[in-house]
Every structure is written in structure tokens, then in C-alpha cells.
Amino acid sequence: MSSSPLKGKHILLTRAEHQLASLSREVCSRGAVAIDFPCLGLELLSHAVEEGARSLQVCSDVLFTSTNGVLSLDAFCRENSQELKALLTGKRIAAVGEQTAAALAELGIHVDIVPALASQEGLVNAYATHGLPTRLLFFRAEEGSNRLAEALQKQGISVETIAAYRTVCPAKDATEIIAMLKASRIDAVLLGSTKAVRFYLQRIGSIELANLPAVVVISAQMAEAAEKLGLRVQVVAKNASFESMLDTLAEYFDANRS
User: Fold this and answer.
1) Is 132 helix (H, G, I), strand (E, B) or coil?
2) Which residues have a Cβ under 8 Å from the Cβ of 5 and sit 6 or more positions away?
3) Which residue among 77, 92, 172, 209 is least enclosed by CB atoms within 10 Å?
């Protein structure tokens, strides 16, 4: 660890608050200092989720494509003194992505289908292998794309989409982080989505300050979006994961040692 290019670097983490712990552990395991600065918050859309809960009575399958979708439905259950596991009993559950599957497993829910490839194509192929749903309920973000639902409908699947939550910018005070940026005490910022970029800029309130640390993004597509918003991207992950972002950041610091 002593020779790690990340040793002693102060890295700003902008994921949602409930997603920070595991990423913080990963950062610290590499000898860096993790600084929590959540730039994504969840707002539960209770009325829509309530309608979705009623639709569970007639659906055969339930689909989650993010941990946020899982947590939103679980939050609704807790608010209404229900148990998510009981609510989903008898339904075939599909989860896109290992983290989504893990979030369900932590709540005691058996996941029947996890596509080998975490993508629209991977899910369509998985259903072709395991059998098409008779009627599918899909919990996702309000701002999510309709492309996945449309692709499933083209396979003859009846799909009901539930906008379970919207992503919002946290309203917490950012004074301490802004002071650290002004003092050049932050070496890098990790940004995993375009929404995180928008809300990072909103929370910092200055494009100049936001550009002081090395800006690290999760994909080339996101780098393009971030630069359109005014950020100067120094590091693009080689693979779409936070582990890859840290690997690529280490290479960046190693190549730019002073």
C-alpha cells in the first residue's frame, strides 16, 4: 500500500448517502482518504408505489434495475407497516446488476434471474432462457428511460412501469467541502452519473472550484456529458465501475507524480 499512487490522496465521493459506505471502504483500502459528499438523494413517489403495490396482485414477475428501486419499495413498505419480502411472495424476481441483486438479498428476497450481462440485451436474453413473464411490473426512477420497457414489450411481454422515485439534489450545507476545495485539500472527485455531475456543480456553486480536483467519470459517454456542463475531465474509467475509476485514477496520479 505504501507505494500506491492513491496513498494519502483526498477523494470526494458523490454517490447517494446509502451507497457511500462500500465505496468509502474501497477507497480507504487503497490508502486514500474518502470524503463523503453525497450529490444524489432519493424522493419516494408514494402514490405511484402504492399503485404498483396493488398491481403486484395480478403480475407474474417483478423487475428491478437499481438498488434505488429496491430501497424505494422497501421504504414504502416500512412507512405502511408492511414487509417487502411478504409483498413479493409468489412473484418471480429479476434484478439487473449484482448490486441490485445484493440489495434484494439483504432484505431476504430470493432473486430468480440475474442477467449475465447487466444490460437491456442481457435481460431480454435471460427472459428468453428462463421463460417470458406473463405480466411484468418494473420499478424504476421517474427520470428513467422507456427503452427497456419498450424492448420487453416487443418480445410480447405485458409491462407496467412504476416511477417509484425521483433523484434529487441533497439540500445539506456544502460549506466545509467548498472550503476544502478552495484550500486545494481535495485531490479528486468521483462522478458516476450525469445526475451526480449536475448536482455536484449545483452544490459547489462554482465551475472554477468544481474543476480544481482531478475529475473522474465512469464512462466516455459521461465524460462528454460532463464536459458539456463545463467540467474538465482528467480521468475516464476503462470499465463502467467505481473500482475501475479508482484503478484508472491511480494510473493518472502515477503518471503525473511531481
Assistant:
1) coil
2) 250, 251, 252, 253, 254, 257
3) 172
